[in-house]
Specification:
CATH class: Mainly Beta
CATH architecture: Beta Barrel
CATH superfamily: TonB-dependent receptor, beta-barrel domain
CATH topology: Maltoporin, Chain A
Distance between the termini: 58 Å
Number of strands: 33
Radius of gyration: 24 Å
Helix content: under 10%
Structural class: mainly beta
Number of helices: 5
Number of domains: 1
Largest sheet: 22 strands, antiparallel, barrel
């Protein structure tokens, strides 16, 4: 508690010394606080963090997974590097409890959440990333148990061409090409990227290929958009799932398709979204002996979403429905089909010009479960032009994966009777927004029930899976973004999160113990060196339960020369030894250098 009070005192001192030099411009950004009707950042009534286009360009990251690790309350646990395979948790939640969106489209892999970040995009393809912290059940339905990450791809606004080449240690090589073409009201963007490395230790070599095409046709009253992406990864999986087998190997390929329409006038808007995602996963326990143990899984997810938003005397009312089909063909899990469907309603209201109210519910059903209602409410009070207080209450849920339901081996047994995990969350916070500063402080509590875990009755029994645990999470979070512009430092961002989690299980041997970040500090500093050289510094302090503490620092320097940009980045600058998962060693210092070419074509 003393540490928390001391940090609040420091931040308060920074606020009082802030000078009105630059406008902290986030008001026009539409955030994930609502699934249909746009909400400006200054009117949101819950905790949302945004990774802006400027940060994406300047941070020392080549993959989306690496970008996310610099955000407060996000726990990015990587197996290897460069986004080969990562798990993402929010505020102590597991990787299965975080919902990933691409332009608002759900990415839910029904086999396992380990594949949710199999995405075809690199940092050059992304305009911004919006992070909604806390359950989003009333807005997004399934799997928004702990929060939502919405990845927004770049809009097509001009004719352009860009190419990137990056090289580095461990025979690292990355190449990327993208271009946009505007033809009257029809625009297209194509992107291709490939990265590879020989690996930093035995069997950590990989090759990652991605391709995407985005097309948009505008009409007087709306637009039609098409997005297709393909991702193919082949990688050595040294000790990924068992430290007894250092020669594990995996190959995944993912197709992503979205077709959407948006029609709107000054009173009503309507949108439809059709999406398809196919993921193929081949896993070998020992690549030197493929016949020893091999799993092959192929999943298909088909979905359609219809929604509408209209203005009334009460404010903005939004209604919608979704229908999804999950399919799997697996050498281990078998062949299965599951339907997911739901209806939602959401009401945004402004009272007395300084109170924003957002209330809604999602009625949802999956598989053989019963229909269930998931409500939520967000409320904010604007005290003046700088301060607003907000409070939220929400419920969320996470449905079991096919692995948890149907896995069957001598050592592990699934459970077809699993129920969904459930959570009720409470949060109270304050935003302070000045011309050059944004401060968000909040305290929160999550009560999770029916948490899925693996257990066994005795040493000689196989592991089994059940709804066996209840979890209570208490937390405190503070995020400060400060534009300085008076010194060689341009801006800085500091985040601190404290979590205390109690897990209650029955008297059996539980497989997974708590591994959350008890203390987490993130720091981002952007500065300018002589001769117009830009630099960014990023640091992470992680105090993970059951692990040693980690301190990781990264940096990137870059110089613009007309259409060319030269840059050099170094991750794990101090060459510290650390792990994100037990027995999976992460790389030491890794230096990369690259060249970018960008041109706008008239």
């Amino acid at each position: 508690m003393k540490q928390i009070l001391y940090m609040i005192f420091i931040l308060a001192s920074l606020i009082t010394s802030a000078q009105d030099t630059l406008q902290y411009k986030l008001d026009d950004i539409v955030v994930t606080s609502s699934s249909v009707s746009p909400i400006s950042f200054s009117n949101i009534s819950r905790s949302v963090q945004i990774i802006t286009s400027d940060e994406i360009e300047r941070l020392p990251a080549t993959s989306l997974n690496e970008l996310l690790q610099y955000s407060a309350s996000l726990d990015i646990r990587q197996r290897g590097v460069d986004g080969i395979q990562s798990d993402i948790g929010i505020r102590g939640g597991t990787f299965e409890q975080t919902l990933i969106l691409i332009n608002g489209i759900q990415v839910i892999d029904p086999q396992t959440g380990h594949h949710n970040l199999n995405l075809p995009f690199r940092t050059a393809d992304v305009a911004r990333i919006e992070i909604l912290k806390g359950p989003g059940g009333k807005i997004f339905g399934a799997n928004s148990f702990s929060g939502v990450v919405n990845i927004i791809t770049k809009e097509i606004s001009k004719n352009s061409f860009a190419a990137t080449v990056v090289g580095g240690q461990h025979s690292y090589f990355q190449q990327g090409i993208n271009g946009s073409i505007m033809l009257s009201n029809f625009s297209n963007r194509i992107s291709f990227n490939r990265s590879k490395s020989d690996g930093y230790i035995h069997n950590t070599n990989y090759e990652d290929l991605g391709f995407s095409i985005q097309s948009s046709m505008k009409f007087p009253s709306g637009n039609l958009e098409l997005l297709y992406g393909y991702n193919n990864k082949k990688f050595g999986a040294n000790s990924f799932y068992s430290n007894n087998f250092p020669n594990q190997w995996e190959h995944t390929s993912t197709n992503l398709l979205n077709l959407s329409t948006n029609i709107a006038n000054s009173f009503i808007s309507f949108s439809s979204k059709f999406h398809w995602r196919k993921n193929h996963d081949r896993f070998l326990l020992d690549f030197t002996n493929p016949a020893f143990y091999e799993n092959i899984h192929t999943t298909d997810v088909y979905g359609i979403e219809l929604s509408s938003s209209f203005k009334t005397v009460l404010g903005i009312t939004s209604i919608g429905t979704e229908f999804n089909i999950d399919l799997i063909k697996s050498s281990n899990l078998g062949d299965h089909r599951r339907e997911r469907k739901g209806f939602f309603i959401e009401q945004q209201t402004t009272l007395w010009e300084n109170i924003n109210l957002n209330v809604g519910s999602f009625l949802y059903k999956y598989g053989n479960s019963d229909w269930k209602l998931w409500p939520g409410i967000d409320l904010s009070l604007r005290l003046n032009n700088r301060f607003r207080i907000y409070g939220t209450y929400g419920q969320g849920f996470r449905i079991p994966t096919f692995t948890e339901l149907y896995y069957n081996s001598p050592a592990n047994i699934g459970n077809i009777n699993l129920a969904s995990e459930e959570v009720s969350s409470y949060e109270l916070g304050v935003y302070f927004q000045d011309r050059n500063l944004l401060l968000n402080c909040s305290i929160f509590k999550k009560d999770g029930t029916n948490i899925i875990d693996w257990f066994k009755f005795s040493e000689n029994n196989p592991w089994q899976v059940r709804n066996i645990a209840d979890i209570t999470t208490l937390g405190f979070e503070v995020v400060l973004d400060y534009v300085i512009n008076d010194f060689f430092i341009n801006s800085l961002s500091i985040g601190y999160t404290y979590l205390n989690i109690d897990k209650t299980t029955s008297s059996v041997d539980s497989r997974y113990f708590l591994e959350h970040l008890r203390h987490q500090i993130t720091l981002k500093v952007f500065n300018t060196l002589p001769f117009g050289v830009s630099q960014s510094w990023c640091a992470r302090f992680e105090d993970r339960l059951q692990y040693l503490t980690n301190f990781i620092a990264d940096t990137k320097i870059s110089k613009n020369l007309n259409q060319f940009t030269l840059f050099l980045s170094a991750t794990n600058l101090f060459n510290n030894s650390y792990v994100d998962f037990t027995s999976i060693k992460m790389p030491g210092r890794w230096i990369k250098f690259g060249l970018e070419y960008n041109i706008n074509i008239d």
